[in-house]
UniProtKB/TrEMBL annotation:
Catalytic activity: Hydrolyzes free adenine bases from 7,8-dihydro-8-oxoguanine:adenine mismatched double-stranded DNA, leaving an apurinic site
Listed name of the protein: Adenine DNA glycosylase
Keyword line: 4Fe-4S, DNA damage, DNA repair, Glycosidase, Hydrolase, Iron, Iron-sulfur, Metal-binding
Cofactor(s) the protein needs: [4Fe-4S] cluster
Source organism phylogeny: Bacteria, Bacillati, Actinomycetota, Actinomycetes, Bifidobacteriales
């Protein structure tokens, strides 16, 4: 039986499972604008969904469209990004907002090429917006989707890294022809990978497509194997130090926005590493270094 023939009963089972089990995230089920969907996708990169929800809600209340975000100060944007991690994403999102405001009259473009031409928007985000916001028939390919499709159709573990041509071909081959069904397919496969068909401890007994899964039938060969490097420890890294500096700046009162040099030095005992991290934050446009050694968020 071909992949296309196998996909139809799998699609029906996943659609029913999605209808009953999809997480009630605020940007789902037509409750968010296309811009809101894009913001949710940018925030969700390398970040757990449960952490994203309150930040997204606060962010969209403050800046409901691209024009509003474009007019915000850099300090406001970095502060609102909070502890989502990788704060340069926030600056790129504001760059994106300015292009949408200035070149597209505050309306998110609707084509793949235009979306990937926006600052900070790559293949996955553009495809997700096309599918989830505009209802287009397009394969959305992220880590969760690749893992589910590889296991169910190939009986193999997805080993991570960049998406391979064979994985993209499979995703496009089993994508339903009907646009509306393709949207549900993308959402349900991604949700299954996030909540059931997880990387290390998949819940195969409660999986709606367990009877159709080649990976389960084969005894789950190579479960959890990865080709990517192990995740870097966080404690003691430059990421931790940069985060400490940014968090200290975010919590300053509005009438005293400068963190004096002595308070900067109190954040981290290794002042060589600290100075390198402060300099890198300045180079990235996330902070401003003052002549007296103090720092502040950009104005």
């Amino acid at each position: 039986m071909s992949d296309i023939e196998r996909s139809e009963p799998i699609r029906r089972k996943l659609a029913a499972w999605w209808e009953a089990n999809a997480r009630d995230l605020p940007w789902r089920f037509g409750r968010a604008t296309p811009w809101g969907v894009l913001v949710s996708e940018v925030m969700s990169q390398q970040t757990q969904m449960s952490r994203v929800v309150p930040y997204w809600q606060t962010w969209m209340h403050a800046w409901p469209d691209a024009a509003a975000l474009a007019d915000a100060t850099t300090a406001e944007v970095i502060t609102a990004w909070g502890r989502l991690g990788y704060p340069r994403r926030a600056l790129r999102l504001q760059e994106c907002a300015r292009v949408v405001r200035d070149q597209y009259a505050d309306e998110l473009p609707r084509t793949y090429d235009e979306l990937t031409g926006l600052p900070g928007i790559g293949d996955y985000t553009a495809s997700a917006v096309m599918s989830f916001a505009f209802g287009a028939r397009i394969a959305v390919i992220d880590t969760n989707i690749r893992r589910v499709l590889s296991r169910v159709f190939r009986g193999e573990e997805s080993l991570g890294g960049a998406a391979k041509p064979a994985e993209r071909q499979l995703a496009n081959r089993v994508l339903p022809d009907d646009a509306a069904q393709s949207v549900t397919w993308n959402q349900s496969v991604m949700e299954l990978g996030a909540t059931v068909c997880t990387a290390k401890n998949p819940l195969c007994d409660s999986c709606p497509v367990r009877d159709d899964c080649a990976f389960l039938a084969a005894g789950r060969p190579g479960l959890g194997e990865r080709h990517t490097r192990p995740r870097q420890r966080f404690a003691g890294t430059d990421r931790q130090v940069r985060g400490l500096v940014l968090n200290a700046l975010r919590t300053l009162p509005a009438n005293a926005p400068v963190l004096p040099r002595e308070q900067v030095e109190a954040l981290w005992s290794d002042h060589v590493q600290l100075d390198q991290c402060v300099a890198s934050l300045d180079n990235d446009g996330l902070i401003e270094m003052l002549p007296d050694g103090g720092v502040r968020l950009p104005r």
